[in-house]
Design goal:
heterodimer, A: about 200 residues, mainly alpha, Arc Repressor Mutant, subunit A, Tetracycline Repressor, domain 2, 10 helices, about 0% strand, B: about 80 residues, two-stranded antiparallel sheet, 2 helices, 2 strands, about 35% helix, globular
């Protein structure tokens, strides 16, 4: 029993290290370009060990997108207090994404290379923020403080703005700089100006 | 932090749990009026409708995304995403 438990612990630890290395490599090298051999090298394990934990590269990438989706959704949830205003939620969204910006940027730019399963991880992230935002928008729209418009158009206009800056970070931020940290506050202010009554 | 086994929503406040009961593993959005958990078919319909309403997806694309999202959740994990 003790040996079994030690083996399980070691296996879980290796999986954790591999996931961390995969997060970094997919973010740095790209979702299509990152190589499993490089991920193994970064994790300090043999190339074969990757496939003990993940049957294929696709499975590894899906696990990484799943994990990112879960972490972003939780972070946005933590940052979105009960009764938060639309403006506060937009700020929370920017902050939540900024913490995971390198990998999130790859999802924005390379969504077409993802499997349907991994693509749904991106929808899951959008659903996490739209869930909070739709309630706040309904509240403030009823109170007359923001303009009445179909929620999905308000949401997609906001996502379109954010994703444009994220996808073109090389034009909007210095090398290595977070485009969301640099421009996030201005984007929130600008978007708020568009929707407020 | 607890997450809903049916839709994945993080649950930290009592009002987010089904019937406000923090011992439940599913959220207020996944509960029927009597407090029981919605079926796979009910959840699939409501999740797809949510994606259409909040993100403007085509109905079929929303249903396909909802199936993929549900396939990774504990309540529905055994079910392949191509099943209805």
């Amino acid at each position: 029993m003790i040996a079994e438990s030690t083996r399980t612990k070691r296996k879980n630890r290796t999986r954790h290290i591999l996931m961390k290395a995969a997060f970094d490599r997919f973010a740095r090298d790209g979702l299509a370009a990152a190589r499993t051999s490089d991920i193994a090298a970064s994790a300090g394990v043999s190339h074969g060990a990757v496939f003990v934990h993940f049957p294929s590269r696709e499975d590894l990438l899906e696990a990484v997108v799943d994990e990112l989706g879960t972490r972003v959704a939780r972070r946005i949830h933590e940052l979105s207090q009960t009764g938060a205003s639309v403006k506060e939620l937009l700020e929370a969204h920017v902050q939540g994404l900024a913490e995971f910006e390198p990998l999130y940027a790859r999802l924005v730019m390379e969504e077409s290379v993802l499997t349907p399963r991994a693509q749904s991880g991106v929808v899951m992230i959008q659903s996490a923020i739209s869930e909070h935002l739709s309630h706040a928008v309904a509240r403030e729209s009823a109170a007359g403080t923001i303009r009445k418009m179909p929620f999905h158009l308000l949401f997609n206009t906001w996502i379109g703005l954010l994703h444009y800056y994220i996808a073109h970070a090389a034009s909007f931020a210095a090398p290595g700089q977070s485009v969301l940290e640099r421009h996030g506050p201005a984007l929130v202010k600008h978007f708020w100006g568009l929707i407020k009554e | 932090m607890k997450s809903c086994i049916s839709c994945g929503m993080p649950m930290t406040r009592p009002e987010q749990f089904a019937m406000g009961d923090v011992s439940k593993d599913y959220c207020v959005h996944c509960a029927r009026p009597d407090g029981s958990m919605q079926s796979y078919e009910e959840k699939l319909l409501s999740m797809a409708a949510f994606i259409v309403k909040t993100q403007g997806f085509d109905e079929q694309a929303a249903a396909a995304s909802a199936k993929e999202m549900m396939a990774r959740l504990p309540a529905w994990k055994g079910r392949a995403s191509h099943e209805t």
